Amino acid sequence: MNSFEINKIIASILLVVLLVFSVNKLGDIVFKVEKPKVAAYKVEGVAATTATTSSNTAEAVDISVLLALGSVEKGKKVFKKCAACHSINAGGGNKIGPKLWNVMFRPVGAITDYKYSKALSSYGKEWTWQEMNGFLIKPAKWIKGNKMGFAGLKNDEDRASILLYLNENSDSPKSLP
Ligand code: HEC
Question: 149 alpha carbon to ligand 1 midpoint, in Å?
Fold first, then answer.
């Protein structure tokens, strides 16, 4: 091989490198895609904030929006899921779970003749709309270590209805927020 041939080989290698490089560059220019600054979809409303609860997101739920989805009549039906373990009528007794007449806005774990778990008896808050909503989505997650054997009410309409129903079954139902 003489030096002329070697030069030719080097030249053609360079040419290929140059070609690949410029095609790459061209591709960048032609196919340059702007990343959108805002995600294309936004999920609005109650469902988005309640579905996967860390306690913080559930706290942000707009309770008046949620409650508007439910009705007391529907709540009465949904309560069948709770009735195996809870009484709801005035003067009802404890069952597997504590009696629930007057439960809204009373302190958590307040029935004196019911033996609560430590988790509930030491929780130290009241059953506000927010607390009850968060608890009923997924009881085991909202108050860790409680002994209510119930998976939760994921459906917003069902949960809203139960909140209204619990509120209604009270000596003094609160007006809605
Ligand atoms: C399998 C039985 C069971 C079912 C079903 C059940 N619960 Fe309970 N619930 C319990 C038990 C047990 C406790 C006490 C938990 C503890 O002490 O940790 C409890 C506690 C509660 C409390 C706390 C009351 C208080 O005095 O602080 C509320 C509120 C409640 N349940 C609401 C409901 C609602 C509403 C439903 C239906 C959607 C339901 N529960 C379904 C067993 C049940």
Answer: 8
